[in-house]
Amino acid sequence: MGLYQSGTITGNGNESSGAQENTRALLALHPFFVCPSPFPAVSSHFQQYGIPPPYYWNMKKILILLFLSATVPAWAQFQLKGKILHYSGKDSLAINIPLIYGFHPENTVRIPVAGDGTFNIALPAQSIRFASLYYQRRSYSLLLSPGKELTVQWDEQNKQLQPLSGSALQENTLLRKINFDETPFFLQHETGLMPLDELNSTIRQPYFHQQQQKTNTVQASDLPWSYKKLIAAELRYLTFNHLNDLARSNMRNRAALDSFIISVFDSSRIEPEVWPAGPQYFAFAGNYVRYLETKAFRQIKKENIPSSEPIPYFGISLDSATVLVNKYGKPYWRWIGSLQNFPPDVTEVYNYQQIINLYQYKDLTQAQHLAAAFRQRFPASRFNPDIDQKINGLRQMLAQHASNKDIVVIDSVRSIYDVIKTLKGKVVYLDVWGTWCGPCKEQLKHTGPLKAAFKNKAVAFVYLDMDEDHRENTWREFIKVNGLAGIHFRKNRQTIAPIWKELLAEHPDKREYYPQYFIFDKTGKPAVAKAFQPDDKEKLYRQIEEVLAR
User: Fold this and answer.
1) Do 146 and 106 fall into the same domain?
2) In what order do the strands lie in the sheet with 118-124?
3) What is the pLDDT of residue 529?
4) Helix, strand or coil for residue 301?
5) Is residue 51 part of a domain?
6) Model confidence, pTM
7) 240, 256, 241, 267: which is closest to 191 by C-alpha?
8) From CA 249, how far away is CA 252, in angstroms rounded?
């Protein structure tokens, strides 16, 4: 549940959250991926999401999983079984196995639980991979290996997972011993405005020391060398990712943020410590390219590098970069950064994930540009057939919704009330978003259940997009591909300013972040500013129902 501020080519850093790294369903996973896993560095985001909603857990997915279990050979499966003590039946048990890294509900499958709390499921696992087991809004990392099995016990009362037995017991017991999923002390509260020296002495250095102690525990274990190497490497990358999360989400001073990011990542290397690399490495790679952005633009300012000269670490001028970002989107800029700085194998796998992210957001414009560049650079990539299938699927969605009369685009809007007054007699839910905003697009995935909850009720949905004028066609294409029924209008950074003043006129928090949501009553008056967002589900539904009842 991230927040975005509109920004320059360097962004504001909030997009580093692993909650933004979108992949696809577990059942569509390709067997050639090694160690896909959730992103423990954003465990707070997991808690906000909670157990992914039931509409991702349909019976079709469970039946397909059972079919795969029956057809995939035993050596390519991981058997997970166990029991939930004091099982009430009120909550769902689920497992998430991302494509490469990051957490998203698309990769989550519910595990059927019997009335006595027992469960038993065979998971496709043709390579070592990390997964997260979810129950009662808590998550625990598991290490899955082909042909192995694990029996676990979850106590519903004390909310603790305990590995009990099985051939995968040793490595998973070790994950519990080192508290792999621990939320660092500095992410449990606001750090305030600390100077850089204090940040380094009270946070960075103690945390590296703490993680090194965990690494020592891993190295002293009786695990095979390959497991120790993988877990130790993941711990190291997790350290960088947690510190990155601190800077990007908790630090408000931009100069201090930049200095801290540089001080942390200057001690890192992009070359992976183990290959095939684990999920924390690929999360680290994404943070690393953002670190290079930070370092490059600080150097540009310090040395007064002309906009026509190459940007350090990226090899193209600021003028050229601006043109590329405006035309192809920011993922293309980071594609350039990865080409210039990552090993080729890393570039290939990392950018495949980025294309899948764009596909999951149904962002055809950016996806097809990045896919074209990817195919040109990696013509023989094993990912190309899947990429082609995804792009063609988005094009079919665009064609399907080209004449959708439920998607209404209006022009010449001066005031938000120009729109609201046309909807008197209905409660209006206003979504302020942007096609450049990852958290905004993440929330759009939850509009289906929201609209279903108010079908045939007097509720209207309005979408105010903030995009610059050169992205007019991208915006129109995006809402068509997504089949986003409702009333739409677009403003740029300048023309949205008076509308923000209207929306926040009576609210003490004047921050203009994205996404934001507002509810208007049936008379057209503001009812709720900064309302709950779509993935808040029942809390939002109650808000809307309360306004409907007035």
Assistant:
1) yes
2) 118-124, 77-85, 149-155, 160-165
3) 96
4) helix
5) no
6) 0.83
7) 256
8) 8
